[in-house]
Amino acid sequence: MRKWAKLPDEEIHVACAAISSAGLLGRARRKDPEQYQRRLAAMPDRVRAEQARGCTLERWQYRDVRVAVLAHEKLLKNMEKELAKNGPWLAGKMFTLADIGVTPYVYRLVEMGLKGMLAGRPRVADWLERVMKRPSFEEAIGKYPAGYMEDADEAEDARDWAEVKKILASA
Fold this sequence. Notes:
single chain; mainly alpha
C-alpha cells in the first residue's frame, strides 16, 4: 500500500500536469489566449510555468508530455499486474489509500478522452468502475469537475488520443 500511496508524489502528479496541459489546457489556450496568458503569469513557480507553456504550445510533441504519457502507461501496466495478482484492490482485499491515491490520475485519463489507455487492461477498467460507484468518489471527485472541462470536445479527444497512440507505439 505504501508503494502505491507514494507514487502520486514521486512521479505521477507532475506527469498528469503535463498531460493535462497538453490536452485540455492546450485547448483552453486556443480558445482564450489572454486568459491562458493570465493563468501562466499567475503561476508562482516560473519553472513550472515554462513547462506548462511548452506543454500547451508543443502539446504531444513536447518531450515532457511524451515522458508523462509513458509514466501513465507504466502506472496502468503495473496496476493491471497488481490487480491480477492481489486484487480486487491495489493492496489486496480492501479499498485503501493505495486506491485513493491513484484514482484521480486514472480518472483524469478518462476525463480527457484518453480512456483508450485502459484498453487491454480489464482489471484496471473494472477497478475504476468500482471506484466510481463508491459514494466517496462522487463526494470527492464527481461533484467537482475540472474548471476547464468545458473545453472538452469529442473531436479534440479523438485527435489527442491519436497523438497519444503514436507516443505509445513509438515506445
